[in-house]
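Table 4 source record.
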Amino acid sequence: MGHALGPAEAGRRFIAGHLHADRAVTALSGGPDGGRVVGVAGYQLGGRGLVGGDAAAVRAQYGRVRGLYRVFLLALLERTPARGELVMDGIAVDPAERGRGIGGLLLREVEAVAVAQGCRRIRLDVVEENPRARALYERHGFRAVRVQRTPWLRDLLGFGGVTTMHKAVAR
């Protein structure tokens, strides 16, 4: 979301001010104090996602003109869950911790949330520039249902195509 919420410090401030921590699962490293966060997976459920904030909040953070541009970019990324569906907003694992099963752990936890909430499926989008993430999703039972090529958005958003994937959830 760097293109939409950058520069980085402004994006961090916006996210911190509009974070819904109850819409994420986290992975922590070991340690007597709970350790540090090494992975996060956000999701949308019940009308709320990991990061909130409406158009007015974006304009308040970035100003009228720059805010309007960002509202446009964020609208391009918007995904609304269908009934009985949990939509993953994203997943991130500390680069130093990748390859250790954290992504799979986060996906299993998101699936547990979906089951507990009575969802019948999980939906996510993966950008074509991230084949490693797509492979992770496929290993965990997600199947591609649609590919959307958007080369005209590459300069605006940093990617030129998105694959939508679904995973059925046993209730």
